[in-house]
User: Fold this.
Amino acid sequence: MLSRLWVYVTLGATSIITEEAAPVLAGFAAHQHHLGVVQAAVACAIGSWAADIGLYALGRWRALKLAARWPKLMGPMEKLLGSVRRHPWRASIAVRYAYGARIPLPIACGAAEIPIANYLIGSGISDGAGARYSRRSAGSSAPPPCCCLDAFGGTRMCSRCHSWSWWL
Assistant:
C-alpha cells in the first residue's frame, strides 16, 4: 500500500516536468490495473495545480529579481505580460494547455498580478480538465492510451480488454 502511495505522489510531483506524458502514463497504468483510475487522475491534477501555484507565486513575488538575473528573457516576457494583462481569465485557464509556455505563463500570471482567487479558479479548471484525460483514456468510454497505430500502421485486438491496441 505504501509503495502505491509513493507512485501517486511521484506521478503528481513530476507532472509539471513530464507534462502531457503524466496523464497518458497514468491512464495506461490504470488500464493495466496497476493504479486506480480516479486516484491517478487526482494525483495528476493536484500535482500540476500545485506546480502552477508555485510558479504563480514565483512570478508574483520575485518577478523583478528574475528579470534582473536574466535580462534576455525580458523581451519575450513583456509580450507575454501584455497578453496576460489583457486576458487574465484566458491566461489562467490556458496554463495547462500553453505548449512551450507551460512554465513562463504561470510566472507571467503572477507578475501581471492577476488576483489569486481568479488564478486558482482558472488554473484549477484547466488542470482538472487536463487530468480528466487520464480518466477517459483508462475508462471504458474511451480507448486506452495504448490504442495507437504501430510503426507499420496496423493495430490488433487486445485479448484481455478487447480493445484495439498495438502495445499489448
Summary: The chain has a mean pLDDT of 75.
